[in-house]
Structure formats: structure tokens, C-alpha cells
Design a protein that fits this description.
Blueprint (H helix, E strand, L loop, with lengths): L3 E7 L2 H16 L3 E7 L5 H9 L6 E2 L9 H19 L3 E5 L3 H12 L3 E5 L14 H11 L2 E4 L2 H9 L7 E3 L3 H9 L9 H5 L6 E6 L8 H16 L3 E6 L4 H11 L5 E4 L4 H10 L2 E4 L4 H7 L4 E3 L7 H6 L2 E3 L4 H13 L1 H8 L10 H12 L13
Parallel strand pairs: 1-2, 1-4, 2-3, 4-5, 5-6, 6-7, 8-9, 8-11, 9-10, 11-12, 12-13
Helix pairs in contact: 1-2, 1-7, 1-16, 3-4, 4-5, 9-10, 9-14
């Protein structure tokens, strides 16, 4: 083998954030020829991350269309990736996590009998419809993959339980910590003037994200009403909510929260400013998966606006608490953190179970070891 040809496929902002430092590591590795394919399942938000990490795709399917369904994405990715695989003929395809691009990219590789490496493998919520469709994407990808890069020991155990051979699993830590540590800066200045004007020292800044498909409708109304009540009760609180581009979410947010003086509905942020905003926050409310991994590295308590999480390690470590989507429960849990310094400190100082900034190094080491370019097996990540 001259060089190991590794083709990386991703299509959304969260995937790009977590895969960008890995692509950079692949590009730096002498024994590897790196090929980058993006589907642009998300377009604008994906491009923000590509620009930040100075990545130029070798192939861009550009499939994004407003109002596209999961079936639309599936068909376009399957056909588009098939053609690229036939041209590139990689030794292995790397996919990440749980998106439709991830599952369908893996399926396309399987159809071409190309090996698949699953980055962020082994996460499970236990409910195939929550998060939807991500949980099933994750499971199906797990059974198409030949190599599994599990962030934690718990993820490793999930895969073994499902019959995946232990020799195919490498515990690496999560690449999102690699990305995060590269972009957070103590003296960071935001492009948005409002974010520079916030008093992060004397105010308790709550950063919120809310966009999950399973929260659309009544759950999201409950969440937004809870935040309004919190903002009214605690005058020392400033809520910053970068609102998802989905017009239904934007309209509902404006309708319920638009009049509150200490709730700031802002445009979505690029990854770098968002990571730096998290680092300045007092508390984070989110239905996102990735933030449950990032915030513990910054010492920030997280309340998860969902009924279950596929990231139980953070719950066990005490950095994350799942509070559901009922208004009163959300208000009560936020009140506890705002009023009890000891309760806050307990969550804020819990050990981050997700990584040490060396996940990409371990994944590249695992690829070299598997393809016999190195005799050295990468060390196991342990928190």
C-alpha cells in the first residue's frame, strides 16, 4: 500500500465541527491521502465551519433545498456518494455520528464494498424515535461500519452488547473537544455588538439552544414559556438564544419570547463565536447533543431539554441533568442552579467524561494500526 486513501463524508454543521480537526489531522499525516466529500445537507451553517477551519472539499454534492424531507436527502446522498466512490475508490470512508448523511453515506460505501469507519460510535438513547431520526441513523450506521471510534467506555460497552467485535472498537474520546480547545479564546471579541455589551461578570447569562424535531409543537411552547417565567423571576439573568433558521421555530420564539427585555433572540452563530459564548455563559439550556459534550469541558452546567439523552456519561458524571419539556420542571431546575451556589458548583466542577483534545490523534493511529501502516495500537481514552 502506497498511501492509505481515506474519504471523509459529512453534511451538517455539527458533523463539520467534529470532523474538521480530524480532516486536518488526516491531511497532516504522511501515510494518508485525505479526500473530503460534503453533501451540504445544511448549506450556510456547514460553510461557516469549513471557512473557520480552512477546509476546501474535494467533492460537494450541494443537496440543500428548503423544505427537503428525510427521503429527499436519502435519495440524493445515496446516488451522489455512489458516483464519487466509484471515481475515488477509497480504502475507507469515515462518517460521523447520527445524521442522514452519515447513515446513507455508510450505506453507499457498503454497496460499493468499501470499508466504513464510524466516528462517535456507540451512542444510544434507547428510544428509536428520540432523537428522531438520529437514533436509528446511529444504530444502522453501527451495523454497516467496519471500524468504530467510540468516544467513551460506555459507548464501547453499547457496541459490544450489540454484537460488535471488540477488536473493531477503539475508545478515542470525542473529537468535539479537539475542535473546542482550538477555538476558545479568553479575550475573544464578537462580531455581534450585543454580545460584547453583555455583562458576563455581574449577570447570570443563560445560553439556550432549541431546535430538535421531537420538540416541535407543544414541547417547544412549554420550553419557551418556561424561559419567559425564568427571565421574569430573575432580573439578574440575561438569556441569549441563537434562533435556528427554521421559520416555524423563529416565529414561535418571537411570539412567546419577543417582548421580554432580558431575552435576546439573535441570529445563529458560527462555531467560533458560539463556542466562545458558551465559555462565557453561567448556565446552558439545550436540546442539542453536541453541547452536552462541549460545555463540561468549559465547566458549565447543562440542563437538557429532552426526555432522554444518548450521552449518559455526562449525567453520571454530574455535568448534565435531563429536565424534560414540562414548563414547571424546567423552571424548578433552573431556579435551583441560580439560587444554590453549592448545587451550581457541584455541576460546574464535575469531571468532563468526553475527551482530552487527543481524539483525532487516536483515530488516525487506529487507522494506521488497522491497515498495518503502524504496529503501535493507540492508547485507550480514559476519563
Amino acid at each position: 500500500m502506497d498511501k492509505l486513501k481515506v474519504m471523509t463524508i459529512f453534511g451538517t454543521r455539527p458533523e463539520a465541527i467534529k470532523m474538521a480537526p480530524l480532516v486536518k489531522k488526516l491531511q497532516e499525516t504522511e501515510e494518508i491521502q485525505s479526500v473530503l466529500c460534503v453533501t451540504a445537507q445544511h448549506r450556510e451553517m456547514l460553510d461557516m465551519v469549513l471557512d473557520l477551519f480552512e477546509l476546501k472539499p474535494d467533492y460537494d454534492l450541494n443537496i440543500m433545498q428548503h423544505g427537503q424531507t428525510i427521503s429527499d436527502i436519502t435519495v440524493k446522498v445515496l446516488k451522489g456518494v455512489e458516483e464519487i466512490l466509484q471515481e475515488v475508490k477509497p480504502d475507507i470512508v469515515l462518517v460521523h455520528g447520527d445524521t442522514t448523511t452519515t447513515f446513507v453515506g455508510s450505506l453507499a460505501a457498503f454497496y460499493q464494498q468499501v470499508a466504513v469507519g464510524h466516528v462517535e460510535a456507540g451512542l444510544r438513547s434507547g428510544n428509536i424515535y428520540s432523537p428522531y431520526p438520529e437514533e436509528m441513523n446511529r444504530r444502522l450506521t453501527g451495523h454497516l461500519a467496519n471500524l468504530h471510534f467510540a468516544p467513551t467506555e460506555g459507548n464501547y460497552k453499547n457496541l459490544v452488547k450489540e454484537g460488535i467485535g471488540e477488536e473493531k472498537i477503539f475508545v478515542t474520546g470525542n473529537t468535539v473537544i479537539d475542535a473546542l480547545l482550538q477555538v476558545v479564546k479568553e479575550d475573544y471579541l464578537f462580531d455581534n455588538p450585543l454580545l460584547n455589551q453583555i455583562d458576563y461578570v455581574n449577570k447570570k447569562v443563560l445560553v439556550m439552544t432549541c431546535h430538535r424535531r421531537e420538540n416541535w409543537g407543544e414541547p417547544m411552547e412549554n420550553i419557551f414559556k418556561a424561559v419567559v417565567e425564568i427571565a421574569e423571576k430573575h432580573k439578574d439573568v440575561e438569556v441569549i438564544f441563537p434562533v435556528h433558521l427554521n421559520p416555524n421555530i423563529r416565529n414561535l420564539a418571537k411570539q412567546i419570547m419577543g417582548e421580554a427585555g432580558n431575552i435576546h433572540l439573535i441570529e445563529p452563530l458560527d462555531y467560533e463565536p458560539f463556542a466562545n459564548l458558551l465559555s462565557k455563559a453561567h448556565l446552558i439550556l439545550t436540546d442539542s447533543g453536541g453541547i452536552q459534550e462541549e460545555a463540561p469541558a468549559l465547566g458549565k452546567p447543562i440542563l437538557v431539554l429532552r426526555t432522554e439523552t444518548e450521552r449518559p456519561e455526562a449525567v453520571e458524571a454530574g455535568t448534565v441533568k435531563v429536565v424534560g419539556v414540562e414548563k414547571q420542571k424546567i423552571v424548578e431546575e433552573v431556579d435551583k442552579l441560580l439560587k444554590s451556589p453549592s448545587h451550581y458548583l457541584e455541576m460546574a466542577t464535575a469531571i468532563n467524561p468526553y475527551g482530552d483534545g487527543r481524539a483525532c490523534e487516536r483515530i488516525v493511529g487506529a487507522l494506521k494500526y488497522h491497515f498495518k501502516l503502524s504496529k503501535e495500537k493507540p492508547e485507550v481514552f480514559k476519563r
